[in-house]
Write a structure and sequence with these properties.
The complex is a heterotrimer of chains A (about 350), B (about 500) and C (about 300). Chain A is mainly alpha-helical and about 350 residues long. Chain A has 14 helices and no strands. Chain A has one domain: ABC transporter involved in vitamin B12 uptake, BtuC. Chain B folds into three domains: about 230 residues, Rossmann fold (3-Layer(aba) Sandwich), CATH 3.40.50.300; about 170 residues, P-loop containing nucleotide triphosphate hydrolases (Rossmann fold, 3-Layer(aba) Sandwich); about 70 residues, no CATH class. Chain B is built from 17 helices and 22 strands. In chain B, strands 6-7-8-3-9-10 form a six-stranded mixed sheet, sandwiched between helices. Classes of the chains: A mainly alpha (about 350), B alpha/beta (about 500), C mainly alpha (about 300). At the A-C interface, helix 6, helix 11, helix 13 and helix 14 of A face helix 4, helix 5, helix 11, helix 13 and helix 14 of C.
Chain lengths: ~350, ~500, ~300
């Protein structure tokens, strides 16, 4: 039977309601644990947008979130659940960090593209493995990608602690050697605008990737095929679109987006790979993609929102002494409400029009 | 006159914008076999689902044995002695026959008394003359036996009123005879039977009374002995029927040649065990057979959707047995799949996007991998008009169209490239009469154009109406090929049940 | 040889297999009823934290166990409401609850114990000393001194195996996971059955979590389950959705994990295998196991599919 459609519940209403609902519940939680929720959220907001510097820091976090979000979203469009953006990001970072430090004296015109390619291809290969296992062996990509996330963490421990990428580091964390100057993405905000901003040219790459995501899915034959496989696998198969090939391709593309995120973290921010690098972006990315309804603009906006949460959460912890993990709780609640979207729909239906007396 | 055992009065039911039932009456007497007939969508099943408590009516009253009944769920229906034998069997495949019969009413303690259960089921089988091995797993027994399990389930719960929903759809003519034998035994044992069907022959063969529904309303109430099939048909359709049995056409060279084709089923095991069949240009070859005898696997092999383990499939002289669907289609093979919603269409896509499915990377729809949106939309609009899809809007989501219009989209897409072979699997399943006629006309049009058509259908009428030659499939083999003129329902029925002519079964 | 099949490795195998087995058993129960619950990881984590929390607050072990299991039940109940009543996407809901569990336990850990770490004086689950096995080589060392929860787990395996395949409620549970509509038409309450199954899975996983914190570690640390709930789901698949199979699979994973510990520093022909790479064994083993087995075992037919009863 056809679902009755309620126009205002389409569009942005459901994401917005989900976020508000999660914020209220999160506030309740802060209140129960003996703090002032208003103060907490005020600290959170100040942390994210309080000064031009804070805004630029929020954007620094938004860049990898956006790319990891696109990674999850593109897989979703083909009907696959990529929980592995985290692992793919790390592989991309390792590959970029390795190539970037391999020939540190190469000029930027050569080294930057090489580093970029290494990051993207590294992530793509890691994602492609999950796609291939699904296509060839029927292994659920959820299991594979979760296991891959754990695997790369331990591989990085080895690489950086006593493996080939081990290098002396001023901070005492196991880390790789710094990448060559040519592989570094320049800072885009000049000092006279925002002093000591860390916002780098990765934001340009991320925006280009968002555009590419849209173009790929809605303007190319491959994108059509990916969406067809996601929405009607058997129909696609009988029409000559082999779903198994598309699974491998889309997981490689997803891995490529995440690998780009990892490369940007190396080239734009840290200029080396270190242990415990960029943890958690991959999981946030699931919320980013779902809240953004797997659309380019939606993913962009929700990446900004979660970046603000993340940046604000850190300051909230130091200013209001409330654990930044509150942000995770809010994020989980957002995701949970989106999962149970029918709840919101049901509520919306009640408000949207009078319920008939007899049913 | 005695009190009717079931009396449904002025029953109405609406689903969204669709008025499924409008003030329908139904009166059934004890010890009767009462046929409830009508076209697809006439409301037969909805009415019975209301009696069984699966739906609640918007208005109207139900009396059972003279007392008003409020049936809120199957549990209430069962308590009133009403049982339903569903069209799609409600059996749990990995469980045994006996476990399926008693499920939900196992009796005894929390520990499963497997022996006691099997004994009780065997006892029940004896009483009603029904044969089924209690210990066999459902997934291992044929459909005819599965239906008996459904009947046993209902009898086990002490039902006095048995509703059969389209019980013969998946049975061979011989299995149908066995079923009717059981149904008569039930009546003789004092049970009341309500038989939902749209097959007039069955109505005439087994029923005592007939209630005809049309478009959710009462169309007629008849006593079987006092009526004839034509009267029932007119009541069902509301007009006289057209007769479209085909005249012989101009048959050209062989387009599809299949020799000793074998392939496995999804569960392992052989689905096709050496199939030989030929289809010529300008010819319709009908594949008759009870569902599940390898017809769908045959279609999938031709398309390249299923791995061929042996044999040759030639299209226009070249072997396509190991080609993928893309390459097969490039040789001019079109496919109307069995399940249009899952296999034929991408339901959330628009009309225009569905028309280019499979051609999304070819000019003029795409150039160098880039979709040509304007061309796609214009072409969608044109095809929608040409194939009379309503509404003819290229941007409409296909999932929101009616079944008939969805099939027009599939057919339009497949025919528009002038294929040389069409493989049509159950092309009219679930369609109303008008849409069925439309599909038939279009297929015959392609035949006159010189296209070869392989028509798979479990509706004997459809096979007989459209085919030049009829191949009968049984257990993964073509057991006979007859010219349409020599095919009769009786002969086909025997062949479909595996009685190979000249060889005693 | 000692590093491969010695008493130490076997004891470690059992110790490491137990939480995986409990999560896998939870998976068997819920998926047999037709609900996928990947929030088992989160159920474990809240079980681990709230066990320590209640042990600290009450000083009573039974209370700690009860609170841990209640926490697992609460998280599972959220999944049940989303998945069964609101027919939400079960994977998304499960992921949300995993993140919630991680955020919540880390948040509370920070607020309550950040400066001190979890207290060292909490009551722990005692081990069962089998004195009569002391003299038996290998076996004595392997099973002679294991946590009480290990033995409880074994009992649960036997109970669930009998329950699922030899009792009336077990038959009904399986029928709901295979063909919910058929069960519904026979008057079996699909939703209620699924609710119970999901809740049971949460309780089992929480028991696995509390085993980690109150038996193995004696404390709580952030994200201490580290994927054991997910590996449990793989063990469930590998064990073909049966309790006995799940136990066997969990032991295989436990062995892989134990090897990664016992092989540390071991030199073979002058080559020391890097410790960190050994730690990847259980995760790679999981992928391999699922890749090898998923095609050959049959999952419950209605697994992961929301059920909507007809009508209204």
């Amino acid at each position: 039977m056809r679902q009755p459609s309620f126009d205002w519940t389409q569009g942005p209403a459901i994401p917005v309601v989900s976020v508000l609902f999660a914020l209220v519940l999160g506030g309740l939680f802060v209140w129960i644990s003996g703090h002032d929720p208003i103060q907490a959220y005020a600290a959170l907001f100040r942390g994210a947008f309080g000064s031009p510097y804070d805004v630029s820091e929020t954007l620094v976090i938004a860049v990898p979130l956006l790319l990891a979000g696109l990674s999850v979203a593109v897989a979703f469009r083909a009907g696959l659940f990529n929980i592995g953006a985290q692992g793919q990001l790390l592989v991309g970072a390792v590959a970029a960090g390795w190539v970037g430090a391999l020939w540190p004296d190469l000029p930027g015109i050569l080294l930057l593209p090489l580093t970029l390619a290494a990051g993207v291809l590294g992530g793509a290969a890691y994602g492609g493995i999950a796609g291939w296992l699904k296509a060839a062996r029927g292994v659920n990509e959820v299991i594979t990608t979760i296991m891959q996330n754990y695997t790369i963490v331990f591989v990085m421990h080895w690489l950086l602690q006593n493996g080939p990428m081990q290098a002396p580091n001023a901070f005492g964390t196991p880390a790789s050697a710094p990448i060559g100057a040519g592989a570094i993405l320049p800072i885009v905000l000049p000092d006279f605008l925002v002093p000591s901003s860390r916002l780098h040219a990765g934001i340009v790459l991320a925006l280009l990737a968002t555009l590419g995501f849209w173009f790929l899915l809605w303007r190319t034959s491959l994108g059509y095929e990916l969406r067809a496989v996601g929405l009607g696998m058997r129909a696609a198969a009988q029409a000559g679109i082999d779903p198994r090939k598309r699974m491998v391709i889309v997981m490689a593309i997803a891995g490529g987006f995440a690998g780009l995120a990892g490369m940007i973290q190396v080239s734009g921010l840290f200029h080396r790979v270190y242990d415990g690098f960029s943890a958690g972006f991959g999981f946030d990315a699931i919320a980013v993609a779902l809240l953004g309804k797997n659309t380019p603009v939606g993913v962009l906006l929700s990446a900004l929102l979660f970046a603000a949460f993340s940046r604000g959460g850190t300051l909230m912890q130091s200013d209001a002494e409330i654990s930044s993990h509150l942000v995770e709780i809010v994020e989980a609640l957002v995701l949970f409400v989106i999962a149970a979207e029918t709840v919101v729909r049901a509520v919306a239906r009640r408000w949207g029009r009078p319920v008939k007396a007899a049913s | 006159m005695d009190t009717p055992i079931v009396e449904m009065a002025r029953i109405s039911k609406r689903f969204g914008d669709l008025q499924a039932l409008a003030e329908v009456d139904l009166t059934v007497h004890k010890g009767d076999i009462h046929a409830l007939v009508g076209e697809n969508g006439a409301g037969k099943t909805t009415l019975m689902n209301i009696l069984y408590g699966l739906y609640r009516p918007d208005a109207g009253t139900i009396r059972v044995r003279g007392t008003e009944a409020h049936i809120a769920g199957p549990r209430d229906a069962i308590a009133l002695g009403i049982g339903m034998i569903h069209q799609h069997f409600m059996l749990v495949p990995p469980l045994t026959v006996a476990e399926n019969v008693v499920l939900g009413d196992e009796r005894g303690g929390p520990v499963l008394d497997t022996r006691g259960i099997e004994a009780r089921v065997a006892e029940l089988e004896k009483r009603f003359g029904i044969q089924a091995e209690p210990r066999a797993k459902i997934e291992d027994v044929p459909l005819g036996i599965q239906q008996r399990v459904e009947i046993l389930k209902v009898l086990y719960r002490g039902s006095e009123i048995l509703i059969f929903d389209e019980p013969t759809a998946v049975l061979t003519p011989q299995e149908v005879d066995d079923l009717f034998h059981i149904v008569r035994t039930l009546r003789d044992e004092g049970k009341t039977v309500i038989l939902i069907t749209h097959k007039l022959r069955e109505v005439m063969a087994v029923s005592d009374h007939v209630t005809v529904l049309r478009e959710g309303r009462n169309a007629a109430h008849l006593v079987t002995k006092e009526t004839d099939p034509r009267a029932i048909a007119v009541a069902m359709v509301g007009r006289e029927l057209r007769d479209i049995r085909v005249r012989p056409g101009n048959v050209g060279p062989a387009v599809l040649e299949i020799t000793s084709l074998s392939a496995e089923s999804d569960r392992g095991g052989l689905a096709l065990k050496g199939v030989d069949v030929e289809v010529h240009a300008g010819e319709v070859v009908g594949i008759a057979g009870v569902g599940g005898n390898g017809q769908s696997e045959l279609a999938q092999c031709i398309l390249g959707l299923r791995k061929v383990t042996g044999g040759v499939i030639k299209v226009g002289g070249s072997d396509v047995a190991h080609d993928d669907p893309r390459r097969t289609r490039q040789r001019g093979v079109a496919y109307v799949p069995e399940d249009r919603r899952a296999e034929g269409l991408v339901l959330p896509f628009t009309l225009a996007d569905n028309f280019i499915l499979g051609r999304q990377d070819q000019p003029p729809y795409a150039r160098r991998g880039i979709l040509q949106g304007r061309v796609i939309r214009r072409e969608g609009e044109r095809l929608a008009k040409e194939f009379d899809v309503r509404p003819p809007d290229p941007d409409v989501e296909v999932g929101t169209l009616s079944g008939g219009n969805q099939q027009k989209v599939v057919l339009g897409r497949e025919i528009s490239e002038s294929p040389r072979l069409i493989v049509a699997n159950q092309p009219t399943r679930g369609l109303d009469i008008a849409a069925t006629e439309y599909v038939h006309e279009r297929l015959l049009e392609q035949r006159s154009r010189g296209c070869a058509i392989l028509l798979i259908s479990s509706e004997l009428d459809e096979i007989l109406d459209l085919s030049d030659r009829i191949a009968v499939m049984f257990e993964g083999r073509i057991v006979a090929v007859l010219p349409a003129a020599e095919a009769t329902e009786e002969r086909l029925g025997l062949l479909m049940a595996g009685h190979v002519e000249g060889v005693p079964a | 040889m000692e590093v491969l099949i010695g008493a130490g490795v076997l004891a470690a195998t059992i110790r490491l297999a137990t939480p995986v087995a409990l999560a896998a058993l939870g998976g068997v129960v819920t998926e047999r009823s037709g609900v996928v619950n990947i929030a088992l990881e989160g159920c474990m984590l809240v079980g681990a934290f709230f066990g320590v929390f209640a042990a600290d607050k009450t000083g009573s072990l039974p209370a700690a166990l009860a609170v841990a299991i209640l926490a697992g039940l609460a998280l599972a109940a959220m999944h049940a409401v989303a998945a069964i009543t609101f027919r939400a996407d079960q994977i998304v809901s499960g992921m949300a609850l995993n993140i919630l569990a991680l955020g919540l336990t880390s948040y509370l850990d920070y607020q309550l114990y950040s400066s001190t770490g979890t207290p060292p004086t909490i009551p722990l689950v005692p081990n069962v000393h089998l004195g009569f096995l002391e003299k038996v080589p290998v076996l004595g060392g392997a099973v002679g001194d294991q946590s009480a929860i290990v033995w409880v787990t074994l009992a649960i395996v036997v109970f669930l195996q009998l329950f699922l395949f030899r009792t009336v409620p077990g038959l009904r549970l399986r029928s709901v996971g295979e063909h919910p509509r058929a069960a519904d038409t026979l008057g079996i309450d699909v939703r209620r059955t699924r609710y119970w199954a999901v809740l049971a899975s949460g309780a089992l996983a929480a028991l696995g979590g509390v085993y980690l914190s109150l038996s193995v570690a004696g404390s709580f640390s952030d994200n201490m389950t580290n994927g054991k709930g997910f590996i449990g789901l793989a063990a469930m698949i590998f064990g073909r959705w049966t309790p006995l199979g799940a136990l066997g699979a969990a032991l295989v994973f436990g062995y892989g994990d134990a090897l990664s510990v016992s092989l540390q520093g071991v030199e073979v022909a002058g080559f020391v295998f890097p410790v960190q790479l050994l730690s990847t064994i259980p995760y790679l083993l999981t992928i391999l196991a699922v890749a090898g087995f998923v095609g050959r075992s049959r999952m419950p037919a209605a697994d992961g599919q929301p059920y909507e009863s007809e009508g209204h």
